Amino acid sequence: MSPSALTWRAALAACLLVVGFGPSVGRANTLQSKLEAELNAPPVPAAVGNDVDALGKKVSALETKLDATPQPAASGDLSVGETYYVRKQYKKAADTFLAGYRKYSGSDKAPDTLLRLGMSLAALGQNEAACSTFKELKDKFPDAPANIRDQAKGEAGKAGCVQ
To answer: What does the DSSP assignment read for 74-95?
Structure first.
């Protein structure tokens, strides 16, 4: 499978997961089934499914739907930020992660949101801000899951942060 097909599928998967958040377990299961079917489907020919403009229109339509869909807010912000990050729209990703962290700094998603914010800032070349973000994650969430702490340490090293 080509890298562009994987990127397209990753963005679609993230969007479907965001839309699937909601009060209905049946709805989430149905969307999970659709997502699994999409991920297991054969690659779409480049002329049909990998057109960047068409993908952008599909993602925009899903973002519009997301804005109108009630969902757990912290998870929603994290997932929307992820869709920007995988499409290398790091400024939008950073803005989304920052807004989500400011609104839901006490949620269980806060450490992951800070990690993603730091990664987005580093991708933008804002290493000082990224390092501050990784430090805040370490200081405020010393009991964050090990995978998040380990990834933050690795990302901080890549950004040239002093530990």
So the answer is: HHHHHHHHHHHHHTT-HHHHHH
Q: Classify residue 55 as left (phi > 0), alpha (psi -120 to 50) or beta.
A: alpha
Tell which wins on pLDDT, 48 or 127.
127
Q: b or e along 44-58 (b: 16 or more beta carbons within 10 Å of the residue's beta carbon)? A: eeeeebbeeeebeeb
Residue environment code for 6-16, b if the CB has 16+ CB neighbours within 10 A, otherwise e: ebbbebbbbbb
Residue 144 is given by DSSP the state S
> Contact 104/74 with Cβ under 8 angstroms?
yes
Query: Tens digits of per-residue pLDDT, 128-142?
Result: 999 999 999 999 999
Residue 55's contacts (CB-CB under 8 Å, 6 or more residues apart) are: 8, 11
- CATH 1.25.40.10 maps onto the chain at 72-163
Structure tokens, 96:
């989304």
Span 72-163 CATH architecture: Alpha Horseshoe (1.25)
pTM assigned to the model:
0.58
Q: From CA 86, how far away is CA 37, in angstroms rounded?
A: 21
Q: CA-based diameter of the chain, in Å? A: 49
